[in-house]
Amino acid sequence: MSNTSSAAVAIGEKKAAVKHDFLIHNQGDHVGVATSNIKAGAKVIGVYMDDETTVELVSKSDIPLGHKIALKAMETGTPVLKYGIEIGVTTQPWELGDYVHTHNIKTQRW
After folding, report:
1. In the record, what terms sit under GO molecular function (predicted)?
2. How many domains does the chain divide into?
3. Residue 7 lies in a domain
């Protein structure tokens, strides 16, 4: 690889790691998963695992490690996508950055 263009990336090179607070499995998912404890009011960065793009938002609530954060506002009764598939339905409205857990989502499993 020539040093003439610092913007070029050689095939097989990894992108620089981005410090992130949550992961999103697929573009179009409605929730991300916290990779560390997130505090209410914190500006947080999420990384899409399918293409490594990022999104930045403000958390509206404390979100524990491994729990979900809302990536978009949604109305009650809306199907929720994670992994690119429906995992449940909202039981109350959400706002961007809300904590998503059993109080506002009903699983598709039962």
Report:
1. hydrolase activity
2. 1
3. no
